[in-house]
Amino acid sequence: MTVVPLYCSKFIRFTHGHLQGSGKKTSLFQRFVHGFNHYFHRMLEYYEVQVTKCLRRPGWTTAIILGGIAVIVLGLSPFIGRAYFPRTDPGQFVINIKCPSGTRIELSNQYIAQVENEIRDVIPKRDLHMIVSNIGITPDLSAIYTSNSAMDTAFVQVSLNEGHKVGSYAYMQMVRRKLQSDMPELTTYFQAGGLIDSVINQGLPAPIDIQVRGNNLDEAFKIAQQIAGKVEQRSSVSDVLIPQDLRYPGLALDIDRERASLIGLSPKDVVDNVITAMTSNGMIAPSYWIDPKTGNNYMLAVQYYEKKIANMSMDDFRQIPLRAAKEESYTPLQSVADIKEINTPTEVDHYQIRRVIDVYVMPSHESLVRARNDVNKILSNIQTPKNVRIAVRGSVVNMDQSFMRFGIGLVLSIVLVYLILMAQFTSFIDPFIILMAVPPGLAGVVLILLMTGSTLNIMSLMGVIMMTGIVVSNSILIVEFAGILHEQGRTLLNAVVESCKIRLRPILMTSLATLLGMLPLALGFEAGSEQYAPLARAIIGGLAVSVVVTVFLVPAVYLLIHGRREAKLGRIGEVEQ
Q: Mind listing the domains of the chain with CATH numbers?
């Protein structure tokens, strides 16, 4: 309001076309401006003819345009996928693998080696950067850093080179098909493994986590298997994984405390001896020895013979030697413990105190709606005992909540814009006419999301709210100037047509500036730009359609509403002229 008028008075020296015919030599830019103005005025004359035809029947024009908008929004919006956040190419992916239950670590290692070869067959060397596999688990503090729960579980991290020709999700799909064909005995679960996905899923490895909660693990596990079997048959789902396993082979030691105490051992001492024998390595006390000659410290540990561990039988296990500190002879394990072979859970998870069995569901596409609907249909038909509860967690829950909040925000933004305009125009009707530019914008958002294959997500919803504020400014130019011309004595029809004609240039200028500014962001060429592309696309689609439709719809609604007011005042002739 201050700087722009100052610059106008300082730098604007002549009007367009002033130098033409003056005999002075014109520059290339001036000739371009003259030619542009020539064709623009021809387009303006054509627009004036068309808008005049539309305003002859403002009711029909309004009905046809609003009807088309309703068909587009209501008819096409169900075909738009919905997601929490748009997918980004992380340049990597993770495969969680479960071998047949009870597989030894040596066989698991062979399975994973074959998986790595399958990956190398799918991903060419130019795109493959690194493969890192983590197999099995060590029963110590390091277990907290791995998702593995037993010797038959593993995860393989695949890193792609920067500038890879094929996207991460495309490679995931190709590797998935390869493993399903060549290694059907493995249970695989693919995830992008990027930081963004981890934050969006709140640390969960899946956007949809079905939790079967109950204190009876066997009962909850059967229900989880029933759910997983039905979910994995749906085309909207690519992977299903139950991370827990209740059938892992284990050994139960029933230690006779009385017999153990006779040889000077506590139950803890017995268990420590067994763990040391089974893991092949364990610290002893004291854990170091000082050489009396040199004073050097040497760390001490006991280690069982590796071949003995690899070929240990149940008889060998029962003969594990136990010896108290003050005893010279040893006692076999079977003398103080009753040993039974059992099936045991690999892990026991809890959520809000209750035990849970998880069913991780990975949708086959970015959109979560189809997978969520399929899951809800399946869960609605599952019969559960009274002590079992089924709940759904993950980003799909946050998506529904965020969509509801954005819907409220969009309505609130429109209401606030209306209140501001009502105060500025001192009218209840003119702000309503101005807001007629919003429905075409919504139709444009629907069209561009369908054409570009984008989903309706948090970013595109932000673009919708931003688009609402932008398209309203174009409508303001027409309504405000039409009111001024009508107050100066022009007929209502003439005032509206002249307003559209004069204000078309600034409308196109501001709209094109916004569209061109958003175009690089919408194309999403840079790494990570997929995150913001839906926002720019929503603005571009909504603004482009709104500009084209608004210059016909807003004048028609303005003439329709104010024409009736003029008719009530006995000034029908002015409208017809």
A: 41-84+400-576 (1.20.1640.10), 91-193 (3.30.70.1430), 205-243+348-393 (3.30.70.1440), 248-344 (3.30.2090.10)
